[in-house]
């Protein structure tokens, strides 16, 4: 028995002088399960793609969502909690890796455009989105674009086929003959830009009210 204990001590000594790895180092290693990247200038945010329950989520590395995920990964591995100092050191190190070693990708809020398609984040727990093209729309889970979410964002109603654009008329301050087109335009830094037009003219009052119905949640 004593010989076995001595041998185990020798093995531990050979593998690292018998010292346990620091919590911060363990946390940094666990982040290898995420895809680290950064957004374009001038923001240059450090971000990560993580897989939760089979779907991809995108979070700011310094944000609560990523930090909670990292804490949970640490608990799953060690069955103990990570202290705040170790988490802070790990988070800043991981953010630096994303900034200087990760790829650069655009990240969008609620709505994004790629090619001939527009993607609208449903805001649901599975991170699905609506894809809109000239041929119609569908709901997809495997997205070619990345979304991040503000804490104030709320889920959109799941669309159903049918209905009519005329349902928007009572929300618009335009006369009956002027409601012709509703256009959804992706714009960086905004949730959705929806404009009412007739012969090249736009109405601000209608724009503001449709904006609220298209993106539930507080905004200025």
Structure in words:
This protein has 220 residues and is of the alpha+beta class. It has two domains: 2-104, no CATH class; 111-214, no CATH class. Helices cover 30% and strands 23% of the residues. It has five helices and eleven strands. The strands form three sheets. A four-stranded mixed sheet has the order 3-2-1-4. Strands 5-6-7-8 form a four-stranded antiparallel sheet, with no helix packed on it. A three-stranded antiparallel sheet has the order 9-10-11, with helices on one face. A hairpin with a 7-residue loop joins β9 (181-185) and β10 (193-198). α2 (23-30) crosses α4 (84-100). Mean pLDDT is 80; it is low at 188-213.
Question: How are the strands of the biggest sheet laid out side by side?
Answer: 3-2-1-4
Q: Cα-atom Rg, whole angstroms?
A: 24 Å
Instruction: Report the helical percentage.
Output: 25-40%
What class do helices, strands and sheet pairing give? alpha+beta
Beta fraction: 15-25%
Average pLDDT over all residues? 80
Characterize the overall form. Answer: elongated
Number of helices: 5
For the record, the count of structural domains works out to 2
Main sheet overview: 4 strands, mixed
Number of strand elements: 11
**Poorly predicted residue ranges:** 188-213
Cα separation of the termini: 71 Å
Q: What is the N-to-C order of secondary-structure elements (H for helix, E for strand)?
A: HHEEEHHEEEEEEEEH
């Amino acid at each position: 028995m004593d010989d076995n204990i001595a041998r185990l001590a020798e093995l531990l000594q050979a593998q690292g002088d018998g010292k346990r790895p620091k919590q911060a180092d363990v946390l940094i290693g666990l982040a290898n399960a995420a895809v680290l990247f950064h957004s374009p200038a001038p923001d240059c945010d450090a971000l990560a793609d993580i897989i939760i329950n089979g779907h991809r989520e995108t979070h700011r590395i310094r944000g609560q969502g990523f930090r909670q995920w990292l804490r949970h990964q640490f608990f799953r591995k060690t069955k103990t909690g990570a202290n705040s100092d170790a988490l802070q050191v790990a988070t800043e190190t991981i953010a630096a890796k994303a900034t200087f070693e990760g790829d650069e990708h655009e990240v969008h809020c609620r709505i994004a455009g790629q090619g001939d398609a527009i993607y609208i984040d449903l805001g649901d727990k599975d991170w699905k989105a609506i894809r809109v093209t000239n041929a119609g729309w569908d709901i997809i889970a495997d997205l070619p674009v990345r979304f991040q979410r503000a804490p104030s964002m709320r889920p959109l109603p799941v669309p159903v086929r049918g209905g009519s654009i005329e349902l928007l008329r009572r929300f618009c301050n335009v006369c009956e003959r002027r409601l012709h087109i509703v256009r959804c335009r992706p714009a960086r830094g905004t949730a959705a830009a929806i404009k009412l037009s007739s012969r090249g003219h736009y109405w601000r009052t209608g724009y503001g009210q449709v904006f609220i119905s298209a993106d539930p949640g507080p905004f200025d």
